[in-house]
Automatic annotation (TrEMBL):
It comes from Novosphingobium mathurense. The lineage of its organism: Bacteria, Pseudomonadati, Pseudomonadota, Alphaproteobacteria, Sphingomonadales. Gene3D superfamilies: Aspartate Aminotransferase, domain 1, Type I PLP-dependent aspartate aminotransferase-like (Major domain). Belongs to the class-I pyridoxal-phosphate-dependent aminotransferase family. This is Aromatic-amino-acid transaminase. Signal peptide: none annotated.
Length: 392
């Protein structure tokens, strides 16, 4: 029976980890999967997480099940950061639950939207490949619109057109900040316009916020999400702590639902809980508990935010250096300076991507997406020279 299965290609992004690891060259560069790296090229555990984990080991007195919603202390402690300190529950209209990473949250969100009658997801192109993979697995139609123009700016005409064509039963997936894979975010004015367009259409916004704090700051990066939440009756937020707490493999995320009426939440959340039960039963506890301990402790919160600031500043510096290189071979690196987060796309041809790997030992996605955090003061000149070489 199992012989009937067709061979599946390895996930292209995850396969890059192995490709890079097996390259023996000492000066190889990994700009593949989205993990932050320090100026020494390391991905260390946050100091604040280490301290919280120590506390957790000392104080946790049980590992008994918590239920499909996970650690609600964690879920609620994050809410002021996501939705704002002034009214984090929107007068009781928002409730959340813990999920295994942002992917778990997206899986739940899309499955629940489908269960509620959503027949199509409107998604910008390009998007994080797993968005489309989850829709394909759930058999949900995807309607794509161009996310950005060749000049490195958002394609507002495309988003306007997509929303104008939206039909009842549509949901729209928006990246809250640090767009993956382009790094090209909507400006505040563009968010204002998008919110106005969505509000009149009765479509369900699903906001993927996987990089809060890595763009322009925790508050700044929540602008679009908060504007959407303030303007629509219903929305879903898919949150990831993988990057902003450096918890990648611990799988820490949350799903938040904004309901039209406070009284509607129990019914909606019962569906989210039932879907979680059928998928993973309960989320892994450890990372979420560590985040909760940080957010419950003023000194640890300060330490975490300072660590996040440092990451953001370092990535900004690398972006500035790339932008300063300007026209490099056949490509212009200038727009990268104004983009946000871990990723940017350089318009390499497939042959140029291969040449970067074979000739220079520099690994990144076939789409031309580079992880800016893989660049350091020690390797950025080599990277720029390699770009000039392969695109000349
Ligand atoms: C990425 O896009 O590289 C990250 O979000 C990691 C992943 O799971 O793909």
């Amino acid at each position: 029976m199992l012989n009937n299965l067709q061979q599946q290609p390895a996930d292209a992004l995850l396969a890059l980890i192995k490709l890079h690891n097996s390259d023996p060259r000492a000066d190889k560069i990994d700009l593949g999967v989205g993990v932050y790296r320090t100026g020494d090229g390391e991905t260390p555990v946050f100091g604040a997480i280490k301290a919280a984990e120590k506390k957790l080991v000392e104080t946790q007195d049980s590992k008994a099940y918590l239920g499909p919603e996970g650690d609600m202390g964690f879920v609620e402690a994050l809410m002021p950061y996501v939705f704002g300190k002034a009214n984090p529950t929107q007068d009781g209209r928002i409730e959340g639950m813990q999920t295994p990473g942002g992917t778990g949250s997206l899986r739940l969100a899309i499955a629940m939207a489908k269960r509620a009658g959503v027949t199509r997801l409107i998604v910008g192109k390009p998007s994080w490949p797993n968005h489309n993979q989850i829709c394909a697995d759930l058999d949900l139609e995807v309607f794509e619109f161009g996310h950005a123009n060749a000049d490195g700016k958002t394609d507002m005409d495309a988003v306007r057109g997509a929303i104008a064509q939206a039909q009842p039963g549509d949901a729209i997936l928006l990246h809250g900040c640090c767009h993956n894979p382009t790094g090209i975010d909507y400006s505040n004015a563009e968010w204002d316009e998008i919110v106005g367009l969505i509000a009149g259409k009765g479509i369900l916004p699903i906001i993927d916020l996987a990089y809060q704090g890595l763009g322009n700051g925790m508050e700044e990066d929540a602008y679009g999400l908060r504007r959407v939440i303030a303007s629509v009756p219903e929305a879903i937020v898919c949150y990831s702590c993988d990057k902003n707490f450096g918890l990648y493999r611990d799988r820490v995320g949350a799903l938040y639902v904004l309901a039209a009426e406070k009284d509607g939440l129990p019914k909606i959340m019962s569906n989210a809980h039932a879907l979680a039960r059928a998928n993973w039963s309960q989320p892994p506890d450890h990372g979420g508990a560590a985040v909760r301990l940080i957010l419950e402790d003023e000194a640890l919160t300060k330490q975490w935010l300072a660590e996040l600031d440092e990451m953001r500043d370092r990535m900004r510096l690398m972006r500035e250096k790339l932008a300063a290189a300007g026209k490099t071979g056949g490509v212009d690196l200038t727009p990268i300076g104004g983009q946000n987060g871990l990723f940017s796309i350089i318009p390499f041809t497939p042959e140029q991507v291969q040449a970067m790997r074979d000739k220079h030992g520099i690994y990144f996605a076939g789409s031309g997406r580079i992880n800016v955090a893989g660049l350091t003061q020690g390797n950025i000149d080599k990277f720029i020279a390699a770009v000039a070489d392969v695109t000349a």
